[in-house]
Description:
Blueprint: H1 2-18, H2 22-33, H3 38-44, H4 53-90, H5 109-123, E1 127-128, E2 134-136, H6 137-140, E3 165-167, H7 172-181, E4 188-197, E5 208-219, H8 226-240, E6 247-254, E7 257-266, E8 283-292, H9 294-299, E9 307-315, H10 316-324, H11 337-340, H12 343-348
Parallel strand pairs: 1-4
Antiparallel strand pairs: 2-3, 4-5, 5-9, 6-7, 7-8, 8-9
Amino acid sequence: xxxxxxxxxxxxxxxxxxxxxxxxxxxxxxxxxxxxxxxxxxxxxxxxxxxxxxxxxxxxxxxxxxxxxxxxxxxxxxxxxxxxxxxxxxxxxxxxxxxxxxxxxxxxxxxxxxxxxxxxxxxxxxxxxxxxxxxxxxxxxxxxxxxxxxxxxxxxxxxxxxxxxxxxxxxxxxxxxxxxxxxxxxxxxxxxxxxxxxxxxxxxxxxxxxxxxxxxxxxxxxxxxxxxxxxxxxxxxxxxxxxxxxxxxxxxxxxxxxxxxxxxxxxxxxxxxxxxxxxxxxxxxxxxxxxxxxxxxxxxxxxxxxxxxxxxxxxxxxxxxxxxxxxxxxxxxxxxxxxxxxxxxxxxx
Length: 349
C-alpha cells in the first residue's frame, strides 16, 4: 500500500505541474483528493490492515494529501496570475491617444435664472415659498382684488378645469396663501418662482411661462416704502441682468397694488442710446410692481391701517431672454441641445 501511495504522489505531482487551465487543475483535485478520489480510496482500504500498519499508512496518506493541496494552491495562484497578465496585456490603453470627449449636460437657462434669483433673495432675508399650479378662482383672482366680472380678468382666465379650478395665470396666488397662513402676523419677506399658464403664443409669449413674485408685508410703523421697493429692484436687476443698468418707474394699473408701476430698465443692447430692440427709446419694460392694495391686505387677514408693504413680479423667461440675448421665447422650450449647451460658456463670459 505504501508503494501505491508513492505512485499516486508521483503521478499527481506530474499532472499538477503540467496543468494549463484552472478547470483541469480542479479536475485533478477531485481525482486525487475528492470524496471518491484515489487517496480517499486508500483510506477506505485501511480496514484490511493490521493495527500496527494503520497509523503508518494513515500518516503517510495525510502527508501526501497536505503536499498535494499545497501544490494545487500554488498552481492555482500561478494560473490566475497568468490569466490576469494576459487580460492586462490585451486591455492595455495607449495613453498617448486623444481621449474620447464626454458630452456633459448643462442647466437650462430658465433654471439658471431661478437659482440665481433664489440665492440673491435668500441672502437678502427672503423665504422661498411654493404653491399649487392647479389653483382655485378664489386665490388666483378674488383674493387679489379681481372679483368675478372684473375686466382685468379678460387677459388672464384661460385654462379652466372646472368652474372653480384653473391652471394658475400668475404666481400672485402664492402671496395670498402666504398671508393667510401667517396667522401670527409676523413680517413677510417672500418670493415664489414657478410655472403659470395663459392663452398666449408668439415670439415673446408662451401659453406656459415662468414667473417670479415677491412680497413684503410689515407693520406701518416700520415704514416699508416705495424707496425700499426701488432699492430692492435695483439690486435684483443689476445682479441678474447687468451691473450698469438703470431703472425707471412709470405709473400703471394693477388690481392688487396701489399705487402701481411699470418698471423699465436701460436697454442692455444699446446702453440707453436707442436701437431697434428698445424701439429707439433707450428703455425696455421689465416688470410690474407697487404697494400692496389695502383690499388685498384686508381680504387676506390684515388690517390695512396697521400693515403695509410692496409686491413685484416679472416673467423669468423674459429675464433669460434679456440676459442671454435670446430673440424668441419658443427657443426655451424646443429642447434643442445645440441651443441649450451654449449657456455654460455664456455664464463664464
